[in-house]
């Protein structure tokens, strides 16, 4: 089973439409891995994580087929991760009632979806709270609350498969104690961790930079969540995260050589 990073950028993406900073100028000129659309992921071909404004573009450019989609897990309601109207728009006129999709999210996400009716697919919704697990096809997806904004329960997702395990941890400041407790002794092979602020950290801004990532990784290693072989991928990358552009994280994460920038289209094999 494959896990794909459909988009690796922050709410702006790179290049920013109105930005002439060196990161955006370089991305505009060079394209490739320097270009970043808004963060989202695909597990296999039937499970999507987040459904932001770049989802349709990502499906077309990366060539994934959402007619096979069965589940959508939403991290939180910010518009770079979820758009109720966009989801509704994408089902207009498709008349595929046999495609049953279950969308999982917090109360704010479900509230934003509630006014929309007559989807072209059969859309079901399920409220997820921190600590709850959804099981299907030998896969377990566990919601874990994190510290991002105070107005809703923003969720990380632990994906446990018969092979490798993944932790989606974008849009997060330092993890709360409850998250460490839920992750204790549960192995994570690939963590996609919020690196919005790049090599610096900005306190209490709802995102992370390298100093905070270092602390989180060290603690997750001590409690056997991360091993020395685990891959640590920076995601939700911002044009504010100087120095960019690069594909290798500029500062090594202590003794771990696996800290790298993720990028749009990155695929890891979970077998
Ligand atoms: Zn975001
Ligand atoms: Zn810029
Ligand atoms: Zn957010």
What structural keywords apply?
7-stranded mixed sheet, binds zinc ion, alpha/beta, Phosphoribosyl 1,2-cyclic phosphate phosphodiesterase, RibonucZ/Hydroxyglut_hydro, 271 residues, Metallo-B-lactamas, Metallo-beta-lactamase, Chain A
Structure, explained:
- Residues 37-201 form the Metallo-beta-lactamase domain.
- This is Phosphoribosyl 1,2-cyclic phosphate phosphodiesterase.
- InterPro entries: Metallo-B-lactamas, RibonucZ/Hydroxyglut_hydro.
- This protein is an alpha/beta fold and 271 residues long.
- It has a single domain, classed as Metallo-beta-lactamase, Chain A (4-Layer Sandwich).
- It contains 6 helices and 14 strands.
- It has a 7-stranded mixed beta sheet with strand order 6-5-4-3-2-1-14. The protein has a 7-stranded mixed beta sheet with strand order 7-8-9-10-11-12-13, with helices on one face.
- Strand 11 (188-194), helix 6 (210-222) and strand 12 form a beta-alpha-beta unit.
- It is globular, with a radius of gyration of 18 Å.
- The model has no long low-confidence stretch (mean pLDDT 93).
- One zinc ion (ZN) binds next to helix 1.
List the topology elements.
Blueprint: E1 2-7, H1 22-30, E2 40-43, E3 47-49, H2 55-62, E4 71-73, H3 84-91, E5 96-105, H4 107-113, E6 121-127, E7 133-136, E8 139-145, E9 155-160, E10 166-169, H5 177-183, E11 188-194, H6 210-222, E12 226-235, E13 259-261, E14 267-269
Parallel strand pairs: 3-4, 4-5, 5-6, 10-11, 11-12, 12-13
Antiparallel strand pairs: 1-2, 1-14, 2-3, 7-8, 8-9, 9-10
């Amino acid at each position: 089973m494959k896990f794909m990073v459909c988009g690796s950028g922050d709410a702006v993406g790179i290049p920013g439409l109105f930005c002439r900073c060196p990161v955006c100028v370089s991305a505009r000129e060079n394209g490739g891995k320097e270009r970043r659309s808004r963060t989202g992921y695909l597990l296999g071909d039937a499970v999507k994580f987040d459904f932001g404004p770049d989802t349709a573009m990502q499906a077309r450019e990366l060539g994934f087929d959402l007619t096979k989609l069965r589940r959508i897990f939403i991290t939180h309601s910010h518009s770079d991760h979820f758009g109720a109207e966009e989801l509704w728009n994408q089902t207009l006129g498709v008349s595929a009632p046999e495609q049953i999709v279950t969308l999982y999210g917090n109360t704010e996400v479900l509230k934003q979806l509630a006014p929309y009716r007559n989807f072209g697919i059969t859309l079901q919704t399920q409220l997820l709270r921190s600590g709850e697990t959804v099981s299907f096809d030998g896969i377990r997806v566990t919601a874990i609350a994190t510290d991002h904004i105070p107005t809703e329960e923003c969720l990380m997702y632990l994906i446990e498969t018969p092979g490798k395990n993944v932790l989606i941890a974008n849009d997060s400041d330092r993890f709360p104690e409850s998250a460490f407790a839920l992750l204790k002794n549960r192995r994570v092979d690939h963590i996609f961790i919020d690196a919005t602020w790049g090599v610096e950290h900005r306190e209490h801004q709802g995102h992370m930079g390298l100093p905070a990532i270092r602390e989180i990784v060290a603690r997750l290693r001590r409690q056997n969540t991360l091993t020395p072989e685990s891959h640590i991928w920076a995601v939700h990358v911002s044009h504010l995260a100087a120095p960019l552009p690069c594909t290798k994280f500029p500062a090594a994460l202590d003794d771990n050589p696996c800290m790298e920038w993720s990028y749009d289209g990155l695929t890891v094999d979970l077998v």
